[in-house]
Amino acid sequence: MGQVTIYLDNEIENKMKTAAKTSHLSVSKWIAKIIKDNISTEWPQDVVDLAGSWKEDFPTLKEIRSTQAVDSNREVL
User: Fold this and answer.
1) How far is CA 32 from CA 7, 13, 27, 60, 76, in A?
2) For 51-68, what is each residue's pLDDT tens digit?
3) Which of 6, 13, 57, 63 is the most buried (most CB within 10 A)?
């Protein structure tokens, strides 16, 4: 496992420690989670679970088109 050294001013360090403690994670795991979340190329599982969940309420194509006005005739170029 690699190690990385970063330099932070005291204010940022204190905020980082508070955020890690609030998340019930060590500072190292908290930072690793932030990095992992920001370089991930996959959708989070909670987003994947939403796929198709609106299907019941979503209008059909016929319903969507029924509310549109008829297009004007186009000029021939």
Assistant:
1) 16, 15, 9, 44, 61
2) 877 767 778 888 888 887
3) 13
Question: What is the per-residue DSSP string for 2-45?
Answer: --------HHHHHHHHHHHHHTT--HHHHHHHHHHHHH--S--H
Q: Which residues contact 33 (CB under 8 A, 6 or more apart)?
A: 23, 25
Domain spans, the chain = 10-66
- For residue 44, what are its two tokens? 């989070």
CB 22 within 8 A of CB 14: no
Q: What is the pLDDT of residues 35-48, one digit of tens each?
A: 998 998 888 889 88
